[in-house]
Amino acid sequence: MTEGGPAAPAPVLELRGLVKGFDGIPVIRGIDLAIREGEFLSVVGPSGSGKSTLLRLLAGLERPDAGEILLRERVMTCLTPQERPTCLVFQSLALFPHKSVGGNIEFPLKVRGVPGRARRDRARALMALVQLDPAYYRRNIRALSGGERQRVALARALAYDPEVLFFDEPLSALDQRLRRSLGAELAALQRATGKTFVYITHALDEAMGMSHRIAVLNAGRIAQIGTPDELYAQPVDRFVAETFGALNVIALTRDAGGWHEDGWRPVLPPDAQIAGEAAVAMIRPEALRLLGPGETAANRLEAEVMSDRGLGAHHRLELRARGRVWLLDLPRGVPRPAPGATVALGWDPADTILRAR
Ligand code: ADP
Ligand code: MG
Question: d(Cα 273, Cα 252) in Å, to the nearest integer?
Fold first, then answer.
C-alpha cells in the first residue's frame, strides 16, 4: 500500500513506556507507540525480539512491569483479555476441533446470548466476508485445510466485533502461495471492515505488501516506525536498513579531511550531518550501476565480476572491488558482463544512506 494510511490519524491504542521482563531478563524495554484508528500496523523483528510478548501485553495475556496501555484514552493496562474490546488471532489456530465451522464462528455470539437465528445470519455473513463457501457451515473443523481454518479463525475473531484485532504470525504455517493470497485478502478485509489491525510477522514481504505502517522491533525496543517506503529508503540505522534488504556497507572514520575508509573518500550526500567519528555508508544493490565506456559517476570503482545469479525479476551480480564483495542488481533482460570480466561500477551520492555507527 502506498497511500500512507488513513487521513486524520487519532490513536485508538496508545502504549506509554511499556516494560516487561521474565525472571529479571528484560524483553520489552520501553515502548511508546500510538496506533491509529483504522490502520494496518505490522510489527516485524527477528525471532526473540519480543514481538509475541508485545502482542500478549496488548491483548491482556501478560501484565507489564511498568507503563500503560490506553484504548481511546482509557487506561486498560489491568483489564483481562475478556474485558478488552480487542481480539487476538493466534498462530496456533485455537479453534474448537469438536465444533462445526458455524459452531466455531457463532461461539462468541452464543456467549453473549445472541439468539440462534441472529447468530446463524451473522455467521453466514461473516463466512461470506472471509470468502468461505456457505456449504462449509455444518462441516467439521477437522475436515478443513489450513487456509480454510485460518478463514474460520478470522470470522470467529470478527464475530466478537472487536475494535482492534491482533494477529501473531497467523500465516506462518501456510505455504508461500497461500500466504500471499491470504495476506492480500487480509489487507482487503481490513479495508472493508475499517478495523484496526496489529499484525506480527517475521516475513517482511508480507508486512510490506499489507501495512500502512511497520514498526521494527530490535531487542525489545522500536528501532523505527514508518511506511514501508520510508523504512526502505530512510532507515534510521544499519539494523533497520538490513531488515529491509541487501546492502553494500562502507565503514567510515572521520579525520581532518572528512569521512574515509582507509584513505579512500567516497562522495557522500551533501546534507550528511553525522556526529561522532564513526559512520556507515550504505548503498542498495539496485543503486549501483555498471558504467559504460566514457560514462562518469561521482563514485567509481574498478571491479571484477565474480558471479551472476537470476533472482526472478532481477539478476544479482557479485563484484570484487577494494578487496571485498559488492552486490549489484540488474533488471532482468539488461545485458550483463560475464564472470571474470573487469567493469567499472558507480553510484550517486544521493543513493548513499549515511548513518552513525
Ligand atoms: P518473538 O515473538 O519476537 O520471537 P517473544 O516475545 O516470543 O519473541 O520472546 C522474547 C523473549 O522473551 C525470548 O527470549 C523468550 O524466551 C522470552 N519469553 C517470552 N515469554 C516468556 C515467558 N512466559 N517466560 C520466560 N521467558 C519468556
Ligand atoms: Mg513470536
Answer: 13
**Residue 78 one-letter amino acid:** C
Spell out the residues 6+ positions from residue 333 whose beta carbon is closer than 8 angstroms to its own. Answer: none
CB burial of 61-86 (b: ≥16 within 10 Å; e: otherwise) equals ebebeebebbbeeeebbeeeeeebeb
| Beta-strand relationship, 66-71 and 11-22 | antiparallel
* 72 has pLDDT over 80: yes
How crowded is residue 239: how many other Cβ atoms within 10 Å of its Cβ? Answer: 16
pLDDT at 179 over 90: no
The CA dihedral of 185, 160, 126, 199, to the nearest 10 degrees, is 0
Residue 290 has phi, psi (to 5 degrees) of -90, 130
Which of 127, 121, 184 has its CA nearest to residue 158? 127
pLDDT, position 333 = 92
CA triple 104-106-107, angle to 5 deg: 65
Residue nearest to atom 12 of ligand 1 (CA): 27
pLDDT value at position 2? 44
* Ligand 1 geometric centre to CA of 343 (Å): 48
**Which of 43, 53, 56, 199 to probe ligand 1 with, by most ligand atoms within 8 A of CB?**
53
Sequence-ordered list of residues with C-beta below 8 angstroms from that of 247, at least 6 positions apart, any chain: 238, 241, 282, 283, 284, 285, 327
